[in-house]
Amino acid sequence: MSQSGNYTSPRRHLIAGNWKMNGILEEAQQFVAELAENPAPDHIEVALMPPFTLLHPLAEPLRQKGVQLGAQSVYHEPKGAFTGSICPVMLRDAGCHYVIVGHSERRDIMGEANELISKKLNAAWENGLEPILCVGEHLEERQDGETNSVLRQQLSVLEDAPEGAALTVAYEPVWAIGTGLTASPEQVTETHAFIHEELTRLGHDCRVLYGGSVKPENTAELMGCAGVEGALVGGASLQAESFSKIVQAAASVAAGA
Ligand code: 13P
Where do the domains of the chain lie, and which CATH numbers do they carry? Predict the structure, then answer.
């Protein structure tokens, strides 16, 4: 395995909670109040991606706690007759810094493919949002030895990205999402090394997060793998207690990095 690239550089690690289609206002307010009881150390960044309806009400309380706000998706057009869609300016207006692009649930359930994902990335960059580009293989693809070619194809959306564009990548093996299965440390290390090499080849040097059944109990092991610079957390981010434990465990690992 090549060690080229500088993926061991100590960047500020990011723990991001993707609430998916969960959460109403009362629960969210309770969550933020509980989160405040365990503030994250400064050397780690924390972000939350609630559903669109909670962006505005959570923006100020999260800002006060030093937690970044992100959206789970975006549409690339600037405005107009796109019923049900949200554009980048609206996300900025709601206080977002991040936006998730290319999540496997959007690829698989909503049929989003590279062409649309490229447009979304460009729209995010043009409007000062930092995309978190999700990539990951299905179980059959891993079993067939196709993991790297799938990842290369998914990362090819970065070929024409502007130089120095703000970017975070999340490696989320689809078979590990919401299943309780996690990739082994060897799989994580090997796959993150491949992603960092691809990113270097494409002229990008950015954080690569791991996602897929991250829990308080497995955070230290996963965050301790070379090339892992944070986590994108689904189910375990819905409770402030478990999300805080993940943040604290990741912070301990990052402090020793
Ligand atoms: P889980 O943590 O629930 O497996 O979800 C991961 C994910 O898809 C985050 O974007």
Answer: 14-256 (3.20.20.70)
Mutational test site, ligand 1, from 214, 217, 246, max ligand atoms within 8 Å of CB: 214
80-132 pLDDT, tens digit per residue, is: 999 999 999 999 999 999 999 999 999 999 999 999 999 999 999 999 999 99
Q: How many Cα atoms are found within 13 Å in the side-chain-facing hemisphere of 147?
A: 19
Please work out whether the CB of residue 178 comes within 6 Å of at least one atom of ligand 1.
yes
Q: For the whole prediction, is pTM greater than 0.90? A: yes
Cα 197 to ligand 1 centre (Å): 24
Closest Cα partner for 117 from 106, 109, 105? 106
Q: Which of 232, 237, 238, 245 to mutate to test the pocket of ligand 1 (most atoms within 8 A of CB)?
A: 232
CA dist list (Å): 150 to 2, 170, 231: 19, 14, 21
Spacing, Cα 7 to ligand 1 middle (Å): 23
pLDDT at position 10: 67
Report which of 147, 123, 144, 127 is spatially closest to residue 135, judged by C-alpha positions. 147
Please indicate whether residue 233, judged by its CB atom, sits closer than 6 Å to ligand 1.
yes
